[in-house]
UniProtKB/TrEMBL annotation:
<protein>
    <submittedName>
        <fullName>Uncharacterized protein</fullName>
    </submittedName>
</protein>
């Protein structure tokens, strides 16, 4: 069973976003913004003589309700393909 955390208790730093979608609301003016993310549930200290941290992740959907007037800007010039 999945555990639900309060938004305020979660850390969203460095969570990878794989996709997003808008789901139109009943009023036709607002909707849900749904982000498909890899949520970091635990940061693991690097092993001795290693520089990079590792972490445990879980797939998650992060949903914002009643979104309106959304503007999205994507800048992929400084992308990273690190995993």
């Amino acid at each position: 069973m999945s555990q639900v955390k309060r938004f305020e208790d979660c850390c969203w730093h460095d969570n990878a976003i794989h996709g997003f979608r808008m789901v139109q609301g009943a009023d036709g003016c607002t909707g849900d913004l749904v982000l498909d993310i890899d949520h970091i549930v635990e940061w693991l200290s690097p092993p001795e003589n290693a520089a990079a941290y590792h972490f445990r992740i879980t797939p998650a959907l992060l949903t914002f309700h009643e979104v309106s007037d959304l503007v999205v800007s994507i800048d992929y010039r400084t992308h990273s393909l690190a995993f």
